[in-house]
Amino acid sequence: MLTTENEAFQKAVEEIFNSCLGCEVKLKEIGDSTAADRINEIKGIIGISGAICGTAALSVSRDFAYKATGALLGETPTELNSDVVDAVGEIVNMIAGRARVLLGNEATNMSLPSVIMGQCEIAFGSENHGTCLRFETAWGPVSMELVLKQQSKSAIPNVTPVAILA
């Protein structure tokens, strides 16, 4: 079991990219989230609740998304379509699910993933500051933004507000 969310998501990205996509990946750096981390035009976002509460967002380029779709489905698309959307959603779902297991938080729940295409900024709310894991891959740069908190024991769960700004 890993001790921090950053470590768990780093390992989950590495495992999923290597085993499911056949794509070499290396952590470049971990830092505060910035607008520059959101320049890729395809984002897979998943909500997390339970022992850990928040949001995880995977940001990839169109080229990366096409290659990942090809790795998962056996045929590489040449345009954005429902297969690309499904593949990016499934990748962020697999990463979050694996991180949950690595953290020993199987009781944590995950939402269905959402995929956003186009240039936009993901705003996590003024009181929520994200961390970004920046990776280099054989298919180009990828970022994983995390806005996660340990859940308090109160009866009312904490919620991380998310807004998509176009």
- Total of DSSP H or I helical runs spanning 4+ residues: 3
What class, by secondary structure content?
alpha+beta
- Note the overall shape: globular
Question: Low-confidence parts, pLDDT < 50 over ≥5 residues?
Answer: none
Number of strands: 9
Strand count, sense and closure of the main sheet? 7 strands, antiparallel
β-strand percent reads: 25-35%
Distance between the termini: 38 Å
Evaluate the radius of gyration. Answer: 15 Å
Overall mean pLDDT score? 84
Helix content: 25-40%
Q: What order do the helices and strands follow? A: HEEEHHEEEEEE
Characterize this entry briefly.
With 166 residues, this protein is α+β, with helices and mostly antiparallel strands.
Describe it.
The chain is α+β, with helices and mostly antiparallel strands and 166 residues long. The protein contains 3 helices and 9 strands. The chain has helices at residues 5-21, 62-73, 82-102, and strands at residues 25-32, 42-49, 52-60, 109-110, 114-117, 121-123, 131-137, 142-150, 163-165. A hairpin with a 2-residue loop joins strand 2 and strand 3. The longest helix is centred in the middle third of the chain and has 21 residues, at 82-102.
Set out the fold topology:
Layout: H1 5-21, E1 25-32, E2 42-49, E3 52-60, H2 62-73, H3 82-102, E4 109-110, E5 114-117, E6 121-123, E7 131-137, E8 142-150, E9 163-165
Antiparallel strand pairs: 1-7, 2-3, 2-4, 2-5, 3-8, 6-9, 7-8
